[in-house]
Each structure stands twice: as C-alpha cells, then as structure tokens.
Design goal:
By secondary structure, the protein is an alpha/beta fold. The protein has a single domain, classed as NAD(P)-binding Rossmann-like Domain (Rossmann fold). It has 8 helices and 7 strands, in the order E-H-E-H-E-H-E-H-H-E-H-E-H-H-E. Strand 2, helix 2 and strand 3 form a beta-alpha-beta unit.
Length: 245
C-alpha cells in the first residue's frame, strides 16, 4: 500500500507514519521546517521518504502529491495530519470570549484557512487523480472543535468545521470511484497542541471526559491505520476520539 502523510514529522503525523509502516505500507511524508525530526523519522522507517513542502502553497502541495504518485505509479492513501494552531497566546488561561475573538488578526485568519483547509483541498485534488479508478482512502485529522462546541479560538474551530464539511462532500463526489473519505476528530491529546493549553482548561477537560484522561497520538494513529488498511464501507464520517467528553 502506497501512503502519503502530510505533516508526517509532527506529534500525530509521526505516529501515523509508524503505524502505517508497521503494517507494511510504503510511506512518504511531508514536513515544513523541522528537517532534523523529519530526517530522523525517515531513517527510523526504512524505505520512507521525507519531503519539504510549504502547506500554504496550493501549487507546492499538489506538486508533492503528483511527484510521489509518479514515482510510485499511483497512490492508495492520503492522510492529512498537517495544520496550525495559530497564535499560542489564544490558548492560554484567561484568553477567552471577546478577548480571544478580537485577538485573531486578518493574517492569522488567512494562515489558518490556507494551511488547514486549502492544503487539504489541494492535496485531495491531486490524490484523486493519482488514485484513478482503483479507489483508495483519504483520512483527514481534524479536531473535536469542528464537530462540537468547545472553548476554542473561532478561526481554529472554523477551519476544522470546514474540514468536516469537505469530507462529507468529498465522500459523495468520490464514492463511485471507490475512494473512501473520513475525518478523525481527536479531543485534547497529551502532546502537540495539548501543550499550548492552560492548566485550567486541561483540568476541565479531564473532569468531564468519561475516561478521565487526555488521548495519545498512538491511539489516533491506530485508528488511521485501520481506516486505511481495513475499512471498506465507512465514508463521509467525522469520528470523535475524545474519550467520551
């Protein structure tokens, strides 16, 4: 199985790459700035490829997908793990309500939408061409913020909500081509963006979460691997992994 992971050097993305590689998949992944982490992961996962890509550029994202598809003579799965949190100060204790809303700049809004939504759309266009009539899988890592109302910066929630709508529309468009499209919507995880949150918000999450803990990247990655390798009928879904919040 030929799998491309966007944002593969990050907290969730790196675990997704490991899970797919462990299943025998051929893996390539993108990164933006952290070449050291990307090269280390590529060395760990024998036969994998690391590609530096600016996700704010439609053209760069499409070219990266096209290049891997040409090299591999097609593509079986695209997993979108890349994204941005935006300004870290918007997630700290005390940043809420109108204060947080007014703290979102025009540049911050555009960056959020371009990277979260734009890169996903560009990658999906190229992936569909690469998959052709054989079918395949597209899995998008979103967030519970795009599925249910939780305390989150408005532009972040808007981007994740757009991903949910995109997944639903893509599933309808691509069903006849046997391409299954789904979104995994994690709650707060123990690493990655979870490290930006203030202690009060983390405590509230754990208090109201049925399992009384945050999630892990490995739990997300294992679900991605199942969707890519085993799923034959689930499509158009945004599946919450929030421990029962």
């Amino acid at each position: 199985m030929r799998c491309l992971v966007l944002g593969g050097s990050g907290y969730v993305g790196s675990e997704v790459c490991r899970a797919l590689h462990a299943q025998g998949a051929r893996v390539a992944f993108t990164y933006k700035d952290n070449a050291q982490a990307a090269n280390k992961l590529a060395a760990e996962l024998e036969g994998s490829r690391a590609l530096r890509v600016d996700l704010a550029s439609f053209a760069a994202v499409g070219e990266a997908v096209d290049a891997i598809a040409r090299e591999w003579d097609g593509l079986d799965a695209l997993v979108q793990c890349a994204g941005t949190a935006g300004d870290p100060s918007l997630y700290r204790n005390g940043a809420a309500g109108a204060q947080r809303l007014l703290g979102v700049s025009e540049q911050g809004w555009r960056e959020m939408i371009d990277i979260t939504v734009g890169s996903t759309f560009a990658a999906c266009q190229s992936a569909v061409r690469a998959m052709g009539e054989r079918g395949g899988h597209i899995v998008v890592i979103g967030s519970m913020d795009g599925v249910k109302s939780v305390p989150a910066p408005v532009h972040y929630a808007a981007g994740k909500g757009a991903l949910r709508a995109m997944v639903q529309a893509l599933a309808k468009e691509l069903g006849k081509r046997r391409i299954l499209v789904n979104m995994i919507a994690p709650g707060i995880l123990e690493g990655g963006m979870g490290t930006l949150l203030g202690e009060e918000l983390l405590a509230e999450y754990v208090k109201h979460c049925s399992l009384k803990r945050t999630g892990t990247a490995r739990e997300v990655a294992d679900f991605v691997a199942w969707l890519v390798a085993e799923n034959t009928y689930v499509t158009g879904q945004s599946i919450l992994l929030d421990g029962g919040l």
